[in-house]
Amino acid sequence: MEDYTRTLHWKEDYGIVLEVDGRERTFSQLSGGEQMSAALAVRLALLQEMSDIAVAFFDEPTTNLDDSRRGSLARQIVGVRGFEQLFIISHDDSFEQATEKLIRVEKRNGASEILYE
User: Fold this and answer.
1) HEC states along 26-73?
2) Burial code of 42-78, b = ≥16 C-beta within 10 A, e = fewer?
3) What pLDDT, on the 0 to 100 scale, is given for residue 28?
4) Confidence class of residue 98 from pLDDT cuts 50, 70 and 90?
5) What pLDDT, on a 0 to 100 scale, did the predictor assign at position 45?
6) Please, are residues 76 and 1 in contact by the beta-carbon 8 Å criterion?
7) CB atoms within 10 A of CB 113
8) What does the pLDDT look like over 44-92, one tens digit per residue?
9) CA–CA separation, 74 and 72 (whole Å)
10) Name one Pfam family in it (predicted).
11) Coil, strand or helix: which one is 86?
12) DSSP secondary structure letter of residue 6
């Protein structure tokens, strides 16, 4: 993330490949965090190119990411253009400062309570 020297592309067999410094790494060779980032990039590209929907949902996008990559991903997602609304469902607080509206679901006395912030 935030490293624009890397290129992500699909092979003819639909395999996802990350190219770094002229060397290719297949999806299975990527770390868990790199796989999550690659999957999000592909999902965004498909949404932007093949849909007229201006809404995107991200469910636990920071899974398998270390602290540094979580912060970087939060900045990248907030900077995404071409969508009217982005919904992020997460147990991670990396997105809190970048959101316009925050809805928390907390369990209290055995029941879920919705808190609007």
Assistant:
1) EHHHCCHHHHHHHHHHHHHHHHHHHCCCCEEEEECCCCCCCHHHHHHH
2) eebeebeeeeeeeebebeebbeebeeebbebbbebbe
3) 94
4) confident
5) 85
6) yes
7) 10
8) 888 888 888 888 888 888 887 888 888 888 888 878 888 888 888 988 8
9) 5
10) SMC_N
11) strand
12) E
- The full length of the chain comes to 117
Structural domains in the chain, sorted by start: 6-116 (3.40.50.300)
Contact between 8 and 17 (Cβ < 8 Å) = yes
3-state class of 98 per DSSP?
A: helix
* Residue reference for tokens 């990559």: 69
Q: Are strands 55-59 and 6-10 parallel, antiparallel or unpaired?
A: unpaired
Q: Inform me whether the pLDDT recorded for 23 exceeds 70.
A: yes
Q: Which two tokens stand for residue 11?
A: 């092979």
Q: Is 90 exceeded by the pLDDT of residue 25?
A: yes
